[in-house]
Amino acid sequence: MRFAMRTRRRLRLGAALLGALAFAGAQAQDYPSRPVRVIVPWAAGGSTDSLGRILAAKLGEYAGQQFVIDNRPGATGTIGHAQLAKSPPDGYTLLLGSNSTFSIAPFLYKSLPYDGETAFAPVALVATNPQILSLHPSVPAANVKAFIALAKARPGEIVFSSAGSGATSHLATELLIMMTGIKMVHVPYKGGGPSAQALLAGETMMSFVDVITCLPFARAGRLRPIGTSGAKRTPLMPDVPTLAESGLPGYESSTTFAMFAPAGTPKEIITKLNREVLRALASPDIKERLANQGMETIGGTPEEFVAYNRREMQKWSKVIRERGIKVE
User: Fold this and answer.
1) Burial class, 242, CB count within 10 angstroms (exposed 0-12 / middle 13-18 / buried 19+)
2) Using an 8 Å Cβ cutoff, are 239 and 231 in contact?
3) Kind and range of the H or E run holding 326
4) 12, 18 in Cβ contact below 8 A?
């Protein structure tokens, strides 16, 4: 009797499990059956927003459903991430974020309204965007070595701008300071645009500027590009050496973008999203459009993102700790 009852209970549980798996499979097969919201946790017009709109249009083309950008800027991207953490895990709310938030913000804020390690399901790394160490033309340094020598000779006199405390342009400079021992004064702005404008106006003397922003001003002689922050030279500015080539071996800093869903999103939906994101990134038109903005596509599995982010967090937590960086 007891054996028969246990057997029936197991059969019911097995049937329920098979039913749940079949339902999840059907969900993934039909997904998406309505528009998908893609949160961009930065203001419209920035690099994350531009990338998000390019990718969303291609995903919508594949899916036959709209992928609609929803800008939720503020607090180094953490406001948008908090929105995602509260969203239903059904694949109809996604987020395209940058390492300013997923790798750096956890070490800048005393507390966040979500747990970055458990609140999100990574879909894929999407792209990377190096920055150009740029000087105002009045700064008497033609290359990285000369700039470092100048900064050492004039400690605390050189003023640098960034897109904000904790932004990748800020952390890239702090990494430079940590590796060279120079002393400079930081002036944070509310975004990469205002930071670049301050440099162009001569209000600041140095900044890490996105490639696509730097290029036209470098050609016009209004900025002097002396080093690329990435691991290799950018095709848009092939004559500008990397900082590693310029006497700082091991230096690397880029803005990296990744897509996320809320934790608990069915694995089948994550797998489908990952496949379609990689398909989009491999398409020649997307590659060309992103390359024209100084970005390089990445791709990869969710597991590869986890390994990458672990390395990024170790790196930037050390910079933040040793440099005593805080967000007020």
Assistant:
1) buried
2) no
3) none
4) no
